[in-house]
Write a structure and sequence with these properties.
Blueprint (H helix, E strand, L loop, with lengths): L1 H27 L4 H17 L3 H29 L12 H8 L1
Helix pairs in contact: 1-3, 2-3
């Protein structure tokens, strides 16, 4: 039964991180990646010190999902450049700044 609970939790957590990455890149750009690294470290520390196996497992999944989100932020930027996702017109990026200087 524990495996099923952890499996459902993993499915939900991974599903939640997808829109979080999209929104994070939209509003803050890939520069927010240190937040995901710090969150991942915190989740893993919490998992290490949590005695409940299910909660510890879910915290570990959240930690590694945070680390994976760093890669996804950079990939999301590429998807936006390809036009697969909308870009935030109010967000200043390095490319926008370079265009405005010319």
């Amino acid at each position: 039964m524990h495996g099923i609970i952890v499996g459902i939790g993993a499915f939900i957590l991974i599903g939640l991180f997808h829109p979080i990455v999209i929104k994070a890149e939209y509003y803050f750009s890939k520069k927010i990646f240190p937040f995901f690294i710090i969150a991942g470290i915190i989740f893993l520390i919490m998992a290490f010190f949590t005695e409940n196996k299910i909660v510890s497992s879910l915290l570990g999944i959240a930690g590694f999902s945070s680390f994976w989100s760093v890669l996804e932020l950079f990939e999301q930027e590429k998807r936006v450049e390809k036009g697969w996702f909308p870009s935030n017109p109010n967000k200043k990026t390095d490319k926008t700044d370079k265009r405005n200087k010319k």
